[in-house]
Amino acid sequence: MQLTATSHNIITASEAHVILPNRPAGLGLTLDFRDPYVVKGPDGLWKMVLGSLSQQGGVILLYETDDPAAADGWRFVGTLLLEERFGTAVVECPCLLPLDGPANDPATRWGLIYGLMNSTHADTERKNLTLVAVGHFDGVRFLTDFEQELDFGTDNYAFQAFVDEGMPVGIGWLANWADVSHTIDFPTTMTLPRNLRFQDGAILTPPVEAVESLRNGIIDDTRLAAGETVRFETGAVEILLDLSWPGASLVLHFDHPDADLALQLDAEGLSILYALPGVVTVPRYIARCASRKPAGFSSMPGRSRSLPIMAAGRAPSASKGSSQSAQVRLEAAEGYVASGRIFALKL
After folding, report:
1. What's the pLDDT score for residue 296?
2. ∠269-249-265 over CA atoms, to 5°?
């Protein structure tokens, strides 16, 4: 069942009423019928995508309405996507939006973003992946040109996005069902808002430019690059590394109270090294980017309980939820890191 309520002032809302009393029949769906997302389609009609699970795998269901207010009259159009890989139990939090142009332009590429609950990446043992399919949407069918993971750290789940002044902006849940308890309260937070940029055949997710307004003075601009240990006295920080050339190796070691935590770049790719005492099997957080060597990094460890990694160039991004780190040390070949800066953040 799906319900809706309308508002004329964005403060108060009418009483909710049912718009979809049942799941579509004949598809062998489970009771899962969740996470509606509404967007104006290329044909001018409002579209709704929902996540579910069929006998074949996770599915994204597509609905539409002629109602200009999108408040009623919804009808089932069809199955927009079937996901049979990774042992997925159900598709969660689907999100559909234009990426690089107006919705009514047939040349515009669209992004279809979705979480795969209970999925497992066979090579790395990472759980609950989030994928983004990039392609063309005609209002009824989604034709995929390519797909990629949205975030190789996997702690950017249930990602939801919208278009703001022509630029897609999104935010995710900074956690993963594999790392939290379903029976007790647990502290989590949301990621910093990110843009979604289609660039050189890949989706990049850098933080929105306004994030720079969180900087509250520079902590260091010499010691980190020289290999010295730098303490975080103010909590949340931003670390910026500019590399002299792509392709060499480095390790950024974080002093963490509960885990061995580091960021590593080597010939295999970009990794978050994360090991817990007494835990034998820990997922391997790696993006194998042999053809996409980063030219620099931005990392923001601290009170935000996160380790978001933003790599310059075409390299991927990652987020890993964690408690606060107290200090950091860089290990790299002499001259490889052209500059290293640490900013205090107002978080």
Report:
1. 55
2. 35
Of 149, 26, 134, 39, whose CA–CA distance to 79 is shortest? 26
In the predicted structure, residue 194 carries a pLDDT above the cut 50: yes
CA distance 241 to 295: 9
Instruction: Render pLDDT for 257-268 as a digit per residue (tens, 0 to 9).
Output: 777 889 998 888
Beta bridge partners of residue 337, listed in sequence order: 243
Helix%, strand%, coil% for the chain, nearest 5? 5, 45, 50
Q: Which domains does the chain possess?
A: 2-200 (2.115.10.20), 209-345 (2.60.120.560)
Residue 77 is predicted with a pLDDT of 97
Q: Which residues contact 287 (CB under 8 A, 6 or more apart)?
A: 149, 152, 269, 270, 271, 315, 316, 318
Q: pLDDT per residue over 114-123, tens digit each?
A: 999 999 999 9
Residues in the chain: 347
d(CA 278, CA 258): 11
Return the bridge partners of 62, or none: 49, 78
